[in-house]
Amino acid sequence: MRTVDLVIERFPQLSTAVRQLFLRDSEFRAICEDFSLALESLHRFEARPDAPMRTEVDDYRNLVRELEEELRRHIEADRKDLRR
Fold it and tell me: Which domain of life does this protein belong to (predicted)?
């Protein structure tokens, strides 16, 4: 799945804003890429038979949450700027 699609999957109600921001903001694209890589790593660790014992699972869950919040802040800030 493409990076932007993963972000849209997480924020479906903001899909238009996400697509527009992804096209014109390199910082937002970098956060999207980090989010994509963190999700990929989380899924890889969760699939392991020893996942309940792996500290990486919680580490990546926290990282994904932090990146989601960073994405949300970035989207909301952009939407406010567009209203001005």
Answer: Bacteria
Residue whose C-alpha is closest to residue 3's, from 28, 17, 16? 28
The answer to whether 8 and 36 are in contact (CB under 8 A) is: no
Q: How far apart are CA 22 and CA 28, in angstroms?
A: 6
At 28-83, the pLDDT tens digits run: 999 999 999 999 999 999 999 999 999 999 999 999 999 999 999 999 998 877 67
Give the C-alpha separation, 30 to 71, whole Å.
10
CB 5 within 8 A of CB 65: no
Contacts of 36 (CB under 8 A, 6+ apart): 3, 6, 7
Please compute, for residue 81, the number of CA atoms within 13 A of its CA located in the half-sphere on the CB side. 8
DSSP assignment letter at 30: H
Model pTM score: 0.90
